Amino acid sequence: MDKYIKNFPFDTVVNLAGQVEVRDGEIASKTLAQNNSVSVTLFAFDKAEEISTHESDGDAMVIALEGKGMCIVDGKEHILNAGDSLIMPSRKPHSVHAVEAFKMMLVVIFPSER
Hints:
Blueprint: E1 27-34, E2 38-45, E3 50-54, E4 59-73, E5 76-81, E6 85-88, E7 94-109
Antiparallel strand pairs: 1-2, 2-7, 3-7, 4-5, 4-6, 4-7
């Protein structure tokens, strides 16, 4: 049987936030799926850590799992708390900042022709 999702238990109920741990002074990540069409990654940011401004050729959805983060998309600040989601459109500069320890899931959907 092919498995398209990795690093995650099958046929088991789990807490997403518990699948990645905040580490002092770091950004931890766990890739769950990665191919030409989609990327699914869990992130855990220590307070004040950030992913600097960049662009992607896919639409990115941030799903806040725990803590408080801020995404800046094309110069506009968005605060995210646990349970909040945000779509960052393709080809727009964006960054992610941990206002406090912050966990999120990032789902990126790429164009069919890459």
